[in-house]
User: What shape does this take?
Amino acid sequence: MAVVVKKGAPKPDISTPDAFKQALINAKTIAYSDPAAGGASGVYFAKLLERMGIADQMKGKTRHPPPSGNSANLVVAGEADLDCADPFPAFAGSASRVQGEGPQTGGRAERNLAGN
Assistant: This one.
């Protein structure tokens, strides 16, 4: 999973499972693809929130993009503090990427700074 924040915003600490969980809890709003729309990253991330025990806590502060939309656009527009998505879609505007280990995914996570 990639964690996207608006260009110039502080980068959340995602270095450990606890740090990643705390970054999600600390965010005022989060964005990810709507699992009801069937997108693999949205389904995966919703299940990840359940495994972390914070799914109910995240419901009131979760935003989903419109069908076929890019959830990173919600961060760029200021509608979400951070986005958790597949690291491969084209992000809105200019982006810089800092890679770090993804403790919850067993693979690589990327921090993308989306902006225009």
About this structure: The domain at 2-115 is CATH 3.40.190 (D-Maltodextrin-Binding Protein; domain 2). The longest helix spans residues 40-52.
